[in-house]
Amino acid sequence: MITVGVIGLGYVGLPLAVAFAQAGCEVVGVDLDQRKVEAVNAGQSYIEDVSSATLGQLSERIHASSRYAPLAKVDAVLICVPTPLTPNREPDLGPLMDSVRALAEVLQSDQLVVLESTTFPGTTRERVAPLLEESGLAAGRDFHLAFSAERVDPGRTDFTLHNTPKVIGGLTPACAQRAEALYALVCDELVPVSSPEAAELTKLLENIFRSVNIALVNELAMLTDRMGIDIWEVIEAAATKPYGFMRFEPGPGMGGHCLPVDPFYLSWRAREFDIATEFIELAGKVNQQMPYHCVAKAQRALNNAGLAVKGARVALLGVSYKPGVGDIRVSPALKILSLLRDLGADVSYHDPHVPLLSDFALSSRPLEEAVADADLVIIVTAHPDVDHDLVARRARLLLDLRGVTRSSGAPNVVRL
Ligand SMILES: NC(=O)c1ccc[n+]([C@@H]2O[C@H](COP(=O)([O-])OP(=O)(O)OC[C@H]3O[C@@H](n4cnc5c(N)ncnc54)[C@H](O)[C@@H]3O)[C@@H](O)[C@H]2O)c1
Asked: HSE on the CB side for 107, CA within 13 Å?
């Protein structure tokens, strides 16, 4: 039986661990967070994409630990730790380097190590390989090393790990073959590329493509606001072109662990090559402006209703960064919340996926109560389980930042 180790049991690592266990592998999961270790061993999932029932059924095959020692017995180790930015917006490889150093202490010859975390081109060869080689084993000779980024879109059910093609870049052809043989157990389609660097940049291209296109429609949304044109109508019409156009929608700004972070891994690396990646920087700048633009719209909507922001009761609907999930990392809703509070608004929220916002000492209020009490309701993230038509009918004043109430035509609705 093939044994697989997964370092980092978060949004990426836990679904991977489950996929390999479902494919018949024995899985060892390692995480520094003792609560996650205990939850996995108790069959309790904390990730939307994995049900506790599924985890419970696999309890014989998935064992979690906060120690690295059990990884000495596995055939392959997949690294899925965070790759955040420092406060100065530079890559923070701290968690990755810590995990690789700890792995080096238990690394065995013939093992395969794959980095799944998103990072800049060169990380696998220049940062991961030398640290692993402190074990005395040589990368590409004594152990295999590859990069293959996770492409999971949390909350999505049509494309999963199984039917999303997996891009793989090995340090050597033999490394690539080993990694391909492993992922063939769980992925329908593999996309081999010539090097870890090509695979690392592929993942960044995918995220930068989204970031730049979202920034483009966000910039247009700020313009159409002044011009008095409905941006949603324009996008709808442009999307009827059968070729050469891809639909992106404006919103309150980018959130999550990927789009606001990953592009800057490349712009940082590019500086070593005397290239300023201006598209990346500009997209970041435009997207960061969106919460401010949305708060200005809220202020205008209240003003038109004869109300000041100071003292107004504002209810935010949806505070996670995307529909259907409870992830609040870098969520623009949090920025909007603090900007409104700074202006003196009394802010509450409803989010079926986020029971608590402890940093703001708030808990999710029942939908109808939150809407009935508010001078202004703002749809920040449109969760599929919220009836937005009902919200449009009940709210005194509604600011829709997601275009989900377009059919309502009600005079109390203002849109981005
Ligand atoms: N979340 C996504 O949608 C997504 C999609 C594709 C790629 N990625 C990338 O995958 C990587 C992981 O992201 P995530 O969302 O799963 O993060 P996460 O924070 O949900 O999970 C990471 C886990 O790693 C653990 N960890 C941190 N340092 C560790 C160490 N030294 N040893 C062992 N465990 C450690 C943390 O406790 C945490 O449980 C990132 O590089 C991210 O950019 C994320």
From this structure: 30
